[in-house]
TrEMBL record:
<dbReference type="InterPro" id="IPR027417">
    <property type="entry name" value="P-loop_NTPase"/>
</dbReference>
<dbReference type="InterPro" id="IPR000523">
    <property type="entry name" value="Mg_chelatse_chII-like_cat_dom"/>
</dbReference>
<dbReference type="GO" id="GO:0005524">
    <property type="term" value="F:ATP binding"/>
</dbReference>
<protein>
    <recommendedName>
        <fullName>AAA+ ATPase domain-containing protein</fullName>
    </recommendedName>
</protein>
<dbReference type="InterPro" id="IPR020568">
    <property type="entry name" value="Ribosomal_Su5_D2-typ_SF"/>
</dbReference>
<feature type="domain" description="AAA+ ATPase">
    <location>
        <begin position="235"/>
        <end position="419"/>
    </location>
</feature>
<dbReference type="InterPro" id="IPR045006">
    <property type="entry name" value="CHLI-like"/>
</dbReference>
<comment type="similarity">
    <text>Belongs to the Mg-chelatase subunits D/I family. ComM subfamily.</text>
</comment>
<feature type="region of interest" description="Disordered">
    <location>
        <begin position="172"/>
        <end position="204"/>
    </location>
</feature>
<dbReference type="Pfam" id="PF01078">
    <property type="entry name" value="Mg_chelatase"/>
</dbReference>
<dbReference type="InterPro" id="IPR014721">
    <property type="entry name" value="Ribsml_uS5_D2-typ_fold_subgr"/>
</dbReference>
<dbReference type="Pfam" id="PF13335">
    <property type="entry name" value="Mg_chelatase_C"/>
</dbReference>
<dbReference type="InterPro" id="IPR004482">
    <property type="entry name" value="Mg_chelat-rel"/>
</dbReference>
<dbReference type="Pfam" id="PF13541">
    <property type="entry name" value="ChlI"/>
</dbReference>
<dbReference type="InterPro" id="IPR003593">
    <property type="entry name" value="AAA+_ATPase"/>
</dbReference>
<dbReference type="InterPro" id="IPR025158">
    <property type="entry name" value="Mg_chelat-rel_C"/>
</dbReference>
Length: 541
């Protein structure tokens, strides 16, 4: 009788659980039993592992074989257990010393020829192994760079089971012939999830690409909207842009990611873990260090936006936009229930999805930008009579965005059509992305210094009770906002959000505390009612 054990990791969302893979050989009729709550793809590993061992020059034991995955109560899905199962079987057959396997975590899928294929979720799996105290990890060779992002873990990247056996038995490591140059590597196919490519709108684009392709200076006019974009980036405030087609709403939203600061190391690992699970890591770039940008089509379902799917839930657009921008163009065209599903992650910063297979928690701390036309034809405004939509149609169209959802949006700006003078005037270009991004970076540094020692990073995250007790404005500065509360223009949540925006304006202009001018600008950005203050941040500094 032979027994051996090694370890792998089961992912539930972006959180991992270390699983002990045990193999037991007993005399009897040759059979292979896999227990421990495996899913269909994991159950099929019996055939993959057997073929991989034989084709790697090993001998398959002709005995009664039982492989157990412990703890048995945790659902286990995917093919990432293949490598651990194969080594546990070889350890039980004494081809590999079982003592060598006991403290190693192995993650990878096996091809029938013994090649080790990558799987999604390598980074969160290695993070879970490190948190559990393991310091040796074996992963596919092409995923070794991603696994090496975790500090304090020794990573071994292997291309085949034959190579791993040689390393564990201290034999000469065979050279594996690489694929012909110029041909696609079939091993990389496991890193991408079908249906999440560029054609679906579910991919993320980094700020570096936006900075290269787009510049805020390309936006003509739109002083109020440009200021709102800058304030949104500095404080993490949600933004609603309303205006006719062609006014520049999409241009402004596309340029917002480049204004955001680069991600910190901790934020980069969070974002990379989500994209690794979703199969959306850019090839050759294991660490995402710029703010992601996700712009799903208005026909997106609730599952694609929030997360879900059959079996164990997958991350949706709100999680793919974690620490970045979620842009919902033509927001009224989204299904109303889909939009209202955003209310909980907007407040909590995460999504909890309950399924029969288990409960999954995904991070979802994103900056939401809504863009909408004022009416079905898009030409309705206070200064233009070209709109031919009946009042009832305008009301129905505008009511598609519910009051509770809009109450969670700090900045609401009307984007006016660009005039001929603005479009043709020489030197009409505004400030570039680099100038605005530098102001945003300095404002974020002031915010970080003020919030040091607290769990919050941006002004938009500070709870209302903390704002009213420890982060008050200058005496008398909130009088106009309080009168708006009495008149019903603002809700209790709304007045807290005005104070948050006022703190962001103060950080941008260098004030120690928000004064009446900062609050007035915050009120104007919140309600759209002019307050007699300059709309350009540069004019306030």
């Amino acid at each position: 009788m032979g027994f051996a054990r090694t370890c792998s990791v089961a992912l539930v969302g972006v959180e991992g659980v270390v699983v002990e893979v045990q193999a037991d050989l007993e005399p009897g009729v040759a059979a292979f039993t896999l227990v421990g709550l495996p899913d269909k793809s994991l159950t099929e590993s019996r055939d993959r592992v057997r073929a991989a061992v034989v084709n790697s020059g090993g001998e398959w034991p002709q005995k009664k074989l039982t492989v157990g995955l412990s703890p048995a109560s945790v659902p286990k899905a995917g093919s990432g257990f293949d490598l651990a199962v194969a080594c546990a079987v070889l350890g039980a057959a004494e081809r590999i010393d079982p003592r060598v396997l006991a403290d190693i975590v192995m993650i990878g899928e096996l091809g029938l020829d013994g090649r080790v294929r990558p799987v999604r979720g390598i980074l969160p799996a290695v993070l879970a192994a490190a948190d559990a105290g393991y310091d040796q990890v074996v992963v596919p060779e092409c995923a070794a760079a991603e696994a090496s992002l975790v500090p304090g873990v020794s990573v071994l990247g292997v291309r085949s089971l034959r190579q791993l056996i040689a390393v564990l038995t201290e034999e000469p490591v065979p050279e594996e012939e690489p694929d012909e140059q110029g041909r696609p590597d079939p091993l990389l196919a496991g890193l991408r999830m079908p249906g999440t490519g560029a054609a679906t709108g579910m991919h993320s684009v980094g700020a570096a690409q936006h900075d290269h392709d787009h510049d805020l200076a390309d936006v003509v006019g739109q002083t109020s909207a440009r200021t709102a974009v800058e304030v949104a980036a500095a404080g993490g405030h949600h933004l609603f842009l309303e205006g006719p087609p062609g006014a520049g709403k999409t241009m402004l939203a596309e340029r917002l990611p480049a204004v955001l600061p680069r991600l910190t190391r901790e934020e980069s690992l969070e974002v990379t873990a989500v994209h690794s699970v979703a199969g959306l890591l850019p090839p050759g770039k294991p660490l995402i260090d710029v703010a992601p940008y996700c712009a799903p089509h208005h026909s997106a379902t609730m599952q694609s936006l929030v997360g879900g799917g059959p079996g164990i839930a997958r991350p949706g657009a709100v999680s793919l936009a974690h620490r970045g921008v979620l842009f919902l163009d033509e927001a009224p065209e989204f299904h109303s229930q889909t939009l209202d599903a955003l209310r909980q992650p907007l407040e909590s910063g995460h999504v909890v999805i309950a399924r029969s297979a288990g409960v999954v928690r995904f991070p979802a701390r994103f900056l939401m930008v809504l863009a909408a036309n004022p009416c079905p034809c898009g030409r309705f405004s206070q200064r233009d009579s070209l709109c031919e939509c009946p009042p009832s149609a305008i009301r129905r169209y505008q009511s598609r965005l519910s009051g509770p959802l809009l109450d969670r949006v700090d900045l609401r700006v009307e984007v006016d059509p660009v005039t001929r003078a603005e479009l043709t005037e020489p030197g009409a270009r505004g400030e570039s992305t680099a100038i605005v991004a530098e102001r945003v970076r300095q404002a974020r540094e002031r915010t970080a210094a003020r919030l040091a020692g607290t769990p919050w990073r941006t002004n938009s995250e500070v709870p209302g009770r903390e704002l009213r007790s420890r982060h008050q404005a200058v005496a008398g500065a909130m009088d106009e906002a309080e009168r708006s509360l009495e008149r019903g223009v603002l809700t209790a949540r709304g007045i807290d959000r005005v104070l948050r925006v006022a703190w962001t304006v103060a950080d941008l202009v260098g004030h120690d505390r928000p004064d009446a001018t900062d609050v007035a600008l915050a009120l104007q950005l919140r309600t759209g009612v002019p307050r007699g203050v300059p709309m350009a941040i540069g004019a306030l500094t």
